[in-house]
Amino acid sequence: MTTVAEQRPAAGFSTTARVRGWLRNPWGKPRFLVLITWAYILWSIVPVLIAVQFSFNATRSRTVWDSFSTRWYWGDPVDSVWNDPTLRHALVQTFKLAGADVLIAVPIGVLLALGLARWHGRGSGASNFIMLFPLVTPEIVMGVSLLLVFSELFTFIHTGTFAQILGHITFSISFVVVIVRGRLFSIGLLTPAIVAAAAVVFAISADDFVISQWLSSGGGTDTVPIRIYSATRAAPLPSVNAIATIMMVTTLLIVTLGFLTWRAFTRGESKAGTAAEDFGTAFRL
What we know:
With 285 residues, the protein is mostly helical. It folds into two domains: 4-54, no CATH class; 84-284, MetI-like fold (Orthogonal Bundle).
């Protein structure tokens, strides 16, 4: 036979008290920070997922869902990404710039990182500071400066694909230097850092808008970010969502492939003192 006191739930273990204790919990895991983190992740990912969803909409609406269709990828004979020459060319131009940036900026950045790591004489400190200058310079300032250099000083370089490649290389070399130098100062194994740097350079080059826009010579050198910006100022079709989805998926695949390669090369390293932050450091810049 149970008493009334035994049947009554303890005041300290009520639902409200448990929730309050779960949020506070000063001696356990920072659960409130976990809630903030997941709230931020949902806030940043949900709009992207909505944009991806409407790239598969059967109608021209980008706000009202009708039914699933691949019309805006290749089904529509005029406005799909595959059949619209302006969108298709923008996709090719974006991959061209990103590929050239990786092939040129990564080797140069590795050589600069090796040189700066071994240089301890006069001027080494200033050189290290100057190398980081593009990282703290607003991209709009970098784009305008490069345009002025090409139009007023090196007049033989005209705006267009070649100028865009030079601009992307100028902007992304510093990322390579920072990633590779971090690996040199920890263990010295360069391959993981080079893989991480290549993936990051591809991602930031494919996503770049400001430098590509300032050094563009017109529609023939428009990249995907430029086309998206131009389309959203008018009456955009779901094909804009489709080409943005293609770019996002491609970039994620490249970064994932780079990460898996990095994992293969760093297998067996201990956690402490490794360059497990090769990717993390790069994306925090």
